[in-house]
C-alpha cells in the first residue's frame, strides 16, 4: 500500500498529476480540484491509495486523508469502483457526500455521472450507518486561477466522467455564456458549474 507520495510536480493535468519521487515519475489520478491546486515545479504531498488489478496498478491521489478515506469507503458498496468513487469526489466535497448519504439525499447522489437512483439507494443503504460528517471537514485543494484552454479541459473531464461530447460542450457553453465570474475563476470551478448544469 502506497499511503502517500511527496516530490516535485512534473505534470499537472485536469485528472492526473505526475510527481517525481526518488527519480521516478509517478502518475497519480486525482480530482480536478486537487490537480488544479498543484503547479509544475512545486513540491507536493498527496495522500494516496493503490488500486491493484490483475492487469494494472493504478495510483489515486487526494488533497487530504479525509478524501482518501471516503474514496476507499464508498468502494465497499457493490458496483462502486475507483472511477465512480473518484467521480463522486469530483462532483461533491467529502462532507457533502457524507451528508447526502447520512440523510438519504438521493437527488444529490444522482448528480454524479454513473450513479442512478438504484445505485444511490444502495449506497445509502450500505453506508448510512458508517459515514459521518467530520467537523470542520473541507475540500483538500483550493481553487487556482484558470489557464488558457480551460473550456476544452473541462469538456474532456466531463466526457471522462461519462457524458457525451455534445452534452459536455453544451453545458460548458451555457456556463461560459452566463459570464459568472465565480464559475470562470478556475478550471475546477468551471467544472463544478458545468456539473450543476448537467444535474438540472
TrEMBL record:
<feature type="region of interest" description="Domain III">
    <location>
        <begin position="148"/>
        <end position="200"/>
    </location>
</feature>
<feature type="domain" description="Helix-hairpin-helix DNA-binding motif class 1">
    <location>
        <begin position="72"/>
        <end position="91"/>
    </location>
</feature>
<keyword id="KW-0963">Cytoplasm</keyword>
<keyword id="KW-0234">DNA repair</keyword>
<protein>
    <recommendedName>
        <fullName>Holliday junction branch migration complex subunit RuvA</fullName>
    </recommendedName>
</protein>
<dbReference type="InterPro" id="IPR011114">
    <property type="entry name" value="RuvA_C"/>
</dbReference>
<dbReference type="InterPro" id="IPR036267">
    <property type="entry name" value="RuvA_C_sf"/>
</dbReference>
<keyword id="KW-0238">DNA-binding</keyword>
<dbReference type="InterPro" id="IPR010994">
    <property type="entry name" value="RuvA_2-like"/>
</dbReference>
<keyword id="KW-0227">DNA damage</keyword>
<dbReference type="Pfam" id="PF07499">
    <property type="entry name" value="RuvA_C"/>
</dbReference>
<dbReference type="InterPro" id="IPR012340">
    <property type="entry name" value="NA-bd_OB-fold"/>
</dbReference>
<feature type="domain" description="Helix-hairpin-helix DNA-binding motif class 1">
    <location>
        <begin position="107"/>
        <end position="126"/>
    </location>
</feature>
<dbReference type="Pfam" id="PF01330">
    <property type="entry name" value="RuvA_N"/>
</dbReference>
<keyword id="KW-0233">DNA recombination</keyword>
<comment type="function">
    <text>The RuvA-RuvB-RuvC complex processes Holliday junction (HJ) DNA during genetic recombination and DNA repair, while the RuvA-RuvB complex plays an important role in the rescue of blocked DNA replication forks via replication fork reversal (RFR). RuvA specifically binds to HJ cruciform DNA, conferring on it an open structure. The RuvB hexamer acts as an ATP-dependent pump, pulling dsDNA into and through the RuvAB complex. HJ branch migration allows RuvC to scan DNA until it finds its consensus sequence, where it cleaves and resolves the cruciform DNA.</text>
</comment>
<dbReference type="InterPro" id="IPR003583">
    <property type="entry name" value="Hlx-hairpin-Hlx_DNA-bd_motif"/>
</dbReference>
<comment type="subunit">
    <text>Homotetramer. Forms an RuvA(8)-RuvB(12)-Holliday junction (HJ) complex. HJ DNA is sandwiched between 2 RuvA tetramers; dsDNA enters through RuvA and exits via RuvB. An RuvB hexamer assembles on each DNA strand where it exits the tetramer. Each RuvB hexamer is contacted by two RuvA subunits (via domain III) on 2 adjacent RuvB subunits; this complex drives branch migration. In the full resolvosome a probable DNA-RuvA(4)-RuvB(12)-RuvC(2) complex forms which resolves the HJ.</text>
</comment>
<dbReference type="Pfam" id="PF14520">
    <property type="entry name" value="HHH_5"/>
</dbReference>
<comment type="similarity">
    <text>Belongs to the RuvA family.</text>
</comment>
<dbReference type="InterPro" id="IPR000085">
    <property type="entry name" value="RuvA"/>
</dbReference>
<dbReference type="InterPro" id="IPR013849">
    <property type="entry name" value="DNA_helicase_Holl-junc_RuvA_I"/>
</dbReference>
Amino acid at each position: 500500500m502506497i499511503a502517500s507520495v511527496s516530490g516535485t510536480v512534473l505534470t499537472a493535468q485536469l485528472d492526473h498529476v505526475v510527481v517525481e519521487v526518488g527519480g521516478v515519475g509517478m502518475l497519480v489520478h486525482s480530482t480536478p480540484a486537487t490537480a488544479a491546486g498543484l503547479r509544475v515545479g512545486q513540491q507536493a504531498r498527496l495522500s494516496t491509495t493503490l488500486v491493484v488489478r490483475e492487469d494494472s496498478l493504478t495510483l489515486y491521489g487526494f488533497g487530504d486523508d479525509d478524501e482518501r478515506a471516503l474514496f476507499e469507503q464508498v468502494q465497499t458498496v457493490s458496483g462502486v469502483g475507483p472511477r465512480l468513487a473518484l467521480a463522486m469526489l469530483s462532483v461533491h466535497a467529502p462532507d457533502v457526500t457524507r451528508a447526502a448519504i447520512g440523510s438519504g439525499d438521493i437527488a444529490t447522489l444522482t448528480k454524479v455521472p454513473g450513479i442512478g437512483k438504484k445505485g444511490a439507494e444502495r449506497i445509502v443503504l450500505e453506508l448510512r450507518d458508517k459515514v459521518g460528517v467530520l467537523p470542520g471537514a473541507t475540500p483538500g485543494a483550493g481553487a487556482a486561477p484558470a489557464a488558457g484552454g480551460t473550456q476544452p479541459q473541462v469538456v474532456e473531464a466531463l466526457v471522462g466522467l461519462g457524458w457525451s461530447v455534445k452534452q459536455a460542450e453544451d453545458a460548458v457553453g451555457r456556463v461560459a455564456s452566463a459570464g459568472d465570474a465565480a464559475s470562470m475563476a478556475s478550471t475546477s470551478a468551471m467544472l463544478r458549474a458545468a456539473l450543476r448544469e448537467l444535474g438540472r
